[in-house]
Write a structure and sequence with these properties.
Bound molecules: adenosine-5'-diphosphate, magnesium ion
Oligomer: single chain
Largest sheet: 8 strands, mixed
Number of helices: 23
Distance between the termini: 20 Å
Structural class: alpha+beta
Radius of gyration: 29 Å
Helix content: 40-55%
Length: about 725
């Protein structure tokens, strides 16, 4: 067999499951050990310093520089006790990953070594902004960027380094990361939601977003991974024939977890627990070697930071197990891809989930106000919401007859949907409606609601699941901050409108509850087109969505144009989340990233075809030629009747080799032509139209050759080898 592949398979066969990170005692005894939470902090600083952190963490108060030295020295004391030697600001640049620059605590003065970490090092670092995507926000003469501690996220220790969660901004203050705008969006949402919630309860002072992030991923043996240049460079297989058996038997989902995988899971869970990440579920997913884990939901910033940490930990722990975690949304053709479902809800400081239907009519009116505002937000900005998850990698999944469809819609469940129909049909808001459905009684014009939590629709990109929305279209490799920031911002805009419409009606003499119900009815009626209860993967829905005027992501760079539309730019500005130049920068970066990633994929597929596939095919061709020549020697003119299969194979292989080599040439040309286009958005469009198509054609020849060439000679681990432990 091709030596590289054989070696990889031999090595993979030796890899087995064992634990590396077992801890003594119950999980509760080490849960959160590596995090310096507010409680622990109290023991490392004065009451005054502690209160300053508390005010900053809880209420966003500015941290007074005078106490920052004391806070820093408390953190240093804790970190060094825990064995840390370095510290780093950990920030989330616009690359969907995290960035860190480690500095040692160690310092020497007058020949004496000591650990040094002061307030200014805690509060601010200066990474070179020019090495991160900035979309033109950074002046060429001013490369500096600043990372600044976000006190609402606790510091923690990973790999002997004190990690300080930070925002990353340019010299002139524009956000160069995903965290800063997200913090702003949470603030905007809180303000707007409080204004609406105060219509029902004056005591509500703040509202927070809760997030539960379900993470899907694939696992691949490290040796096999190393034998696949495409997986290594792009996170997905750019060629590879589907396996005879993949997910058709539906025997993997929720099946027994293979022991090797289970040791890996237990190990990364142990590490996650030490970082205070409350992982709760683990199970097999639909595709072979695909799995999922989910923590218990928590406050949004923490949930996002923890998801980023989790991805890092999983990769690190996987190394010990000779595994690679594949976070790419579509690593393998023909089997399901991976997502990162974002369960999103909003709760008040008085402990009320605003998306939970209540038992009393007033509570329900409050629920309906929030629900209707979300509906309106998603309807108005449906393309923006989809574009916020439309990365190149996620685009291989979007609309591919699996989660998620390429067009946005909201699933409410039959009970709620019935309530909305009833509200829309009310001639007068004061009129009482008695619905036929037993569960829906509209008493005093206000519906009583008992939504069925088991009512699930897995084909909906944005589904209501009883007390929260599940944004299911987010990609598994994405930093969810981007998508969550869009959700928060558009809902904030919508809630602001809600309150102002109610105010206007009240000013005109309308009584409060009927004013509220009138606005609910208006929002629902105006947004009804976004509601869809049926099969989101069906052809009929695709057509109906079009007829309803819903815009789908048919082509990723085309969809990015939504960032240039006034409705988007104005919305972000109104809620004070992103200034127009920051939106513009994101538009540029999205296009730039799309082009770069596709360029790498196009190069890799060309390289693999020319240097691995074609040479193997030629070697096998030579064997066939030898064979046919021999048969001709033996049988003379009659030889054809003895080698029909060999002749057919020879012809087919020759044809695919020819096609492939000319398609690779065309692919290179398409790439070069696109690269000559200066405008990045136009270049991205050209890449998506021409380069992507050419890659498909190259792949087709490669996958056909894989079926024709002697298995022994095929140089790359096959799907059946990659996908099953
Ligand atoms: P499923 O796969 O059925 O959607 P999972 O248990 O895999 O369910 O994940 C559900 C996620 O939703 C978990 O992270 C859970 O903590 C989270 N969640 C539950 N209730 C809420 C809520 N009110 N707000 C936000 N997230 C929630
Ligand atoms: Mg799930």
């Amino acid at each position: 067999m091709a030596t590289f592949r054989q070696k990889a398979l031999d090595e993979a066969a030796l890899h087995s499951g064992s634990r590396f990170y077992a801890e003594e005692g119950p999980v509760s005894s080490y849960f959160g050990r590596n995090v310096l939470d507010l409680d622990k902090m109290r023991g490392y600083m004065s009451q005054q310093a502690y209160e300053a952190v508390l005010a900053s963490a809880k209420f966003g108060a500015k941290l007074d520089r005078s106490v920052s030295n004391e806070i820093a020295s408390g953190m240093k004391a804790w970190a060094t006790e825990m064995g840390a030697t370095h510290y780093t600001h950990l920030f989330q640049p616009l690359t969907d990953s995290t960035a860190e620059k480690h500095e040692a605590f160690i310092s020497v003065k007058d020949g004496k070594a000591f650990e040094k970490f002061n307030g200014s090092a805690l509060v601010q670092q200066e990474p070179d902004a020019s090495s991160f995507p900035n979309g033109g926000l950074r002046n060429t003469f001013e490369a500096r960027g600043y990372s600044a501690w976000d006190p609402s996220s606790p510091v923690f220790i990973m790999d002997g380094t004190l990690c300080i969660p930070s925002v990353f901004v340019s010299y002139t203050g524009e956000a160069l990361d995903t965290k800063a705008p997200n913090l702003k969006s949470l603030h905007a949402l809180s303000e707007a939601a409080v204004a609406v919630a105060n219509l029902f309860d004056e005591n509500i002072k703040s509202v927070k977003v809760n997030l539960g992030v379900e993470q899907e991923y694939f696992l691949v043996d490290e040796s096999l991974y190393n034998a696949r240049p495409d997986l290594m460079m792009t996170g997905r297989t750019v060629i590879g024939h589907t396996s005879a058996k993949d997910q058709q038997l539906e025997d993997h989902y929720f099946g027994a977890i293979p022991s090797r995988v289970s040791s890996f899971m237990k190990d990364f869970e142990t590490e996650a627990y030490k970082l205070g990440i409350l992982l709760q579920t683990r199970h097999n997913e639909v595709a072979p070697n695909q799995f999922e884990c989910a923590p218990v939901f928590c406050e949004a910033t923490k949930a996002i930071d923890q998801n980023m940490m989790l991805m890092i930990i999983m990769q690190k722990v996987a190394e010990k197990h000779h595994l690679k975690v594949i976070f790419h949304e579509k690593p393998f053709d023909g089997v399901n891809g991976s997502g990162k479902h974002c369960n999103w809800s909003i709760t008040t400081d008085t402990g009320v989930n605003l998306l939970s239907p209540g038992k009393t009519p007033t509570k329900n009116l409050q629920f309906l106000s929030f629900y209707a505002s979300v509906l309106r937000a998603v309807h108005r900005h449906h393309l923006l919401l989809m574009a916020s998850v439309a990365t190149l990698s996620n685009s291989y999944r979007l609309g591919g007859n699996e989660a998620p469809p390429a067009v946005m819609s909201v699933f409410s469940g039959s009970t709620l949907y019935g309530v909305f129909q009833a509200i829309m049909n009310m001639k007068d808001v004061k009129e009482s409606v008695e619905s036929k459905q037993e569960s829906i009684k509209i008493v005093n014009s206000i519906p009583e609601i008992f939504p069925d939590n088991t009512d699930r629709n897995r084909t909906s990109p944005f589904a209501f699941t009883g007390n929260r929305f599940e944004f299911r279209a987010v990609g598994s490799s994405q930093n969810v901050a981007t998508a969550v920031c869009v959700v928060n911002s558009i809902v904030a805009e919508s809630l602001r409108e809600f309150r102002s419409y109610v105010d206007a009606l009240e000013a005109a003499g309308e009584e409060r509850s009927s004013a509220v119900l009138a606005v609910v009815r208006r929002f629902i009626t105006e947004s009804k087109d976004i509601m869809f209860e049926g099969n989101g993967y069906s052809k009929e829905w695709e057509e109906e969505a079009k007829a309803r005027g819903l815009r789908a992501v048919e082509n990723v760079p085309d969809a990015y144009e939504v960032f240039n539309e006034p409705a988007t730019v104005e919305m972000f500005q109104k809620v004070d989340v992103l200034a127009p130049n920051e939106v513009q920068a994101r538009f540029e970066i999205l296009n730039e990233t799309y082009v770069k990633k596709l360029q790498i994929e196009a190069r890799i597929i060309g390289d693999m075809c020319l240097s691995q596939v074609i040479p193997a095919a030629v070697r096998y061709k030579n064997i066939l030629v030898e064979n046919i020549r021999g048969l001709k020697n033996i049988f003379g003119d009659d030889y054809l009747s003895y080698c029909r299969a060999e002749m057919e194979a020879l012809k087919a292989i020759s044809m695919y080799i020819n096609n492939m080599s000319s398609d690779v040439e065309l692919l290179v040309e398409a790439r070069k032509k696109a690269n000559r286009i200066d405008n990045i958005a136009q270049r991205a469009k050209m890449y998506s139209r021409e380069v992507k198509d050419m890659m498909e054609r190259v792949r087709e020849s490669a996958d056909n050759l894989e079926m024709l060439i002697d298995n022994e000679m095929w140089p790359l681990p096959k799907y059946r080898e990659l996908l099953f432990f």
